[in-house]
Amino acid sequence: xxxxxxxxxxxxxxxxxxxxxxxxxxxxxxxxxxxxxxxxxxxxxxxxxxxxxxxxxxxxxxxxxxxxxxxxxxxxxxxxxxxxxxxxxxxxxxxxxxxxxxxxxxxxxxxxxxxxxxxxxxxxxxxxxxxxxxxxxxxxxxxxxxxxxxxxxxxxxxxxxxxxxxxxxxxxxxxxxxxxxxxxxxxxxxxxxxxxxxxxxxxxxxxxxxxxxxxxxxxxxxxxxxxxxxxxxxxxxxxxxxxxxxxxxxxxxxxxxxxxxxxxxxxxxxxxxxxxxxxxxxxxxxxxxxxxxxxxxxxxxxxxxxxxxxxxxxxxxxxxxxxxxxxxxxxxxxxxxxxxxxxxxxxxxxxxxxxxxxxxxxxxxxxxxxxxxxxxxxxxxxxxxxxxxxxxxxxxxxxxxxxxxxxxxxxxxxxxxxxxxxxxxxxxxxxxxxxxxxxxxxxxxxxxxxxxxxxxxxxxxxxxxxxxxxxxxxxxxxxxxxxxxxxxxxxxxxxxxxxxxxxxxxxxxxxxxxxxxxx
Length: 519
Prior knowledge:
The protein is an alpha+beta fold. It folds into three domains: about 1-95, Phosphorylase Kinase, domain 1 (2-Layer Sandwich); about 100-325, Orthogonal Bundle (Transferase(Phosphotransferase), domain 1), CATH 1.10.510; about 325-510, no CATH class. About 40% of the residues lie in helices and about 25% in strands.
């Protein structure tokens, strides 16, 4: 976006150098800027001059505070990092700089395939769920109702590690539900996406956002609106939302083939009465997630079938050459202790590059007796795995793994395998992405007595919620500046680990009565 804006080139708060005007809306103007103090590209939003009233200043500050708290908890809400007032007494806040398209631009230019729709819809739900769960205001948990869910307020960006990433924008008219605060008695929102109760100025709850989301889902799937107002006016849309029956998918596009469960979900979100809709975003997610798993799996199976058919069309000799060597076998065959590492009981993380894939691994050197015990008493091994993260003063993850075996751990305690992943380094980012994407890692064991050959490999599965956390940390770290030495973050994480250590040991000992193998 080009302009002769006099703000271009200004230095705000002796830190943010405004480079380019990239967006404008009803409440503010957004600039791409450089953080000259800590480096990096960020975005700065200013409240526009004709809204510089005490009430609008408060609302603008509330928007910044809301996004600052929600953005720390959800990957799918724009993250605010700073707030201030410039030399002209105009409030501004600083947020992550996002590159991508609005959902409105995406659905205007193309029809969404079902797997892509399901992925985007699920991410929007996760962002809304975080908002509806609320933020802390004066020691009180206050749910947030967005009140303006529409395609132009959803940004679709591309992350190198995780593919398409959805962010909910513009909490400018969001409502904090506080016990001692009155609700608005006037309409605020965007007419085609507003719920019936929103147009009446009623007290709102999460079901109002669910209605708006239903309108948007219909549009995402068809490119058309479920309702058509006689005139683009408040009265026209009031009548449409209150009295008009939403169009069916078949009426809009007879060739569209959707799962019956999805059609039912969208139409339920569009019910006129809030009591007839899903009562929470969690209910919407519960319906969407199985559909996404089913259709994503179908697409992956289709890709694999295509690969098999392609291999069958090759001459027999070439087929034999292309048979993949199992990953575990590749590790055993090619993993050798690095010559630049000491022959000692140490632990370090490493990206293991196999023939067609890479995996996250922990390399460990132990006495042969301990490795043999892990192999022979396999059913009595317990594995604990967890990740601790701090984004300040320097983005860092402590990757914790503990091996517990009743035959040699009761006296000595678990074998702790701890690694630090610096999220500002390519290796740290690569490992985090592999852990989150594959939902697994491998422990590669070497014996002190014979250090050059791999002695044993253990595969460890990572729980799905942990993978979601890893994804969020990896992306947030890309835009979070380092304000201190990495060693300070390591010290903080080590202190947190020491605080948790005894409880972890107690859990491992307690569950030892029920032997299992996690790998």
